[in-house]
Amino acid sequence: MSLKKGYKSVPWLFGKEIEIPEEWEVKCLNETGDLINGLNKDKEDYGHGCLHVNINNIFESFSIIPERLGRVNATEKEIDTYALQKGDICLLRSSVKREGVGYPALFNEDNNSIVFSGFIIRFRPNKIWFSIYLTFLLRSELMRNIIVSKSSSSANTNINQKSLGSILIIIPPLSEQQKIATILSNVDNLIESTEMVITNSKKVKKGLMQKLLTRGIGHKKFKNTYLKYRFLKISIPEENVIKNVKQISTLDNNAVKTGPFGLMLHSSDYVSQGTPLILVKNIQRGHIVDSDIPKISEKDVERLSDYRVKEDDVIFTRVGRVGSSALVKKTQVGWLFSGQTLRIRFENPELNIKYVNYYFQSELFTRLLIPELLGSTRDSINTKILEEIPIILPSKNEQDKIVIILSNIDSKIESQEKYKEKLERLKKSLMQKLLTGEVRVAI
């Protein structure tokens, strides 16, 4: 096989070879810096003393955040031995989850009195490395797969210095490392700022929901009332009424219906092509998502036709993650809801179904639901509980206005989430191409 101009072939894993730029090198990690295990202390030594990097701090951010560190009582000799220096990289030596072992975080602080836990291996790179670049590299899918493959499992998944130090690693010239790190850091900053916009928008939405669903829009006169429990006293507009789910529905005996129980349908009945069956996992953030949704045969659909959904039905989680709800869209008509869920059908022209679904997503509704939960091993509810949940109802016109306001915020959140997903895909692609030398950067 002919090589690209400016590239060379070098030995890699499993007796294979890879192409890298001619100026790049491949070495074992322990040839490019020093590895040392962290400080082990007794339980009573924690909670006071010097700052201390532990397992959870590795996952919090790309770089260690001093404000989130705990403390440990360490001697001067221990601090001298285990103090981190700017540019060190902390890697998890032991992890409950296999995919977490060897995960890195950069120490980028000037404070030289912060130590690290015995569950962490510190790598101190030599001068061939730009530490920010190396952290990106060790977090890349390519290197994560290699590191995890070197681990061993018992109760936890572990990796030792010898195994970690033996991994092969691709080394560009320092100037190229710095340029690649700058590109990836810029993408990371965009992802972080987008996440902040999403978080702030969700806070705004939460506050607006609380205000709009209880105080309404433009009201002057209010009345005090209790919502089901004496501890839930609220003030609502005088014009608003409180009715429970069953009272709002025009269906006397079929407002809330439980999905088919286990004896009626088993996971062994699922087929690769058929009609989707809505499970708890398919109800996410007010929507029914069709990723990883099971399907059942037309024969079973006919047998279970009473459990078909209609447009604007509300599907409500009945067990496990109780309290999540989603509206059925036109494209989902005819799907079936499972025994893990409840179906609410209103068929009330004086009701904006989206208003009710927002109500189900509110903090107020959660406070009403929690005291009603059944079950000792896992939470659950039944049709009677849901039928009797009270809902604050303004006029249809006001419901429509509230839905418009909240839908606009949802649209902005959804747009930002899609943008963030796009950035994350871009970052993954850039890491794959830049960190292997497939695409070069101009220096």
What does this protein structure show overall?
The protein is an alpha+beta fold and 443 residues long. The protein has 3 domains: 7-172, Adenine-n6-DNA-methyltransferase TaqI, Chain A, domain 2 (Alpha-Beta Complex), CATH 3.90.220; 173-206 and 401-436, Helix Hairpins, CATH 1.10.287.1120; 217-393, DNA methylase specificity domains (Adenine-n6-DNA-methyltransferase TaqI, Chain A, domain 2, Alpha-Beta Complex), CATH 3.90.220.20. The protein is built from 12 helices and 28 strands. The protein has helices spanning 55-60, 76-82, 131-139, 141-149, 161-165, 174-215, 245-248, 298-303, 353-360, 363-369, 383-387, 396-434; strands spanning 7-11, 17-21, 25-28, 33-37, 46-53, 70-72, 89-92, 94-95, 104-106, 115-116, 120-125, 152-153, 157-158, 168-171, 222-226, 233-237, 241-244, 256-258, 270-271, 275-278, 283-284, 287-288, 295-296, 314-317, 325-327, 336-337, 341-344, 390-393. The strands form 10 sheets. A 4-stranded antiparallel sheet has the order 4-11-7-9. The chain has a 4-stranded antiparallel sheet with strand order 18-27-24-25. The chain has a 4-stranded mixed sheet with strand order 19-23-20-26. Strand 1 (7-11) and strand 2 (17-21) form a beta hairpin. Helix 6 packs antiparallel against helix 12 (396-434). The protein is elongated, with a radius of gyration of 28 Å. The two termini are 29 Å apart. The mean pLDDT is 93.
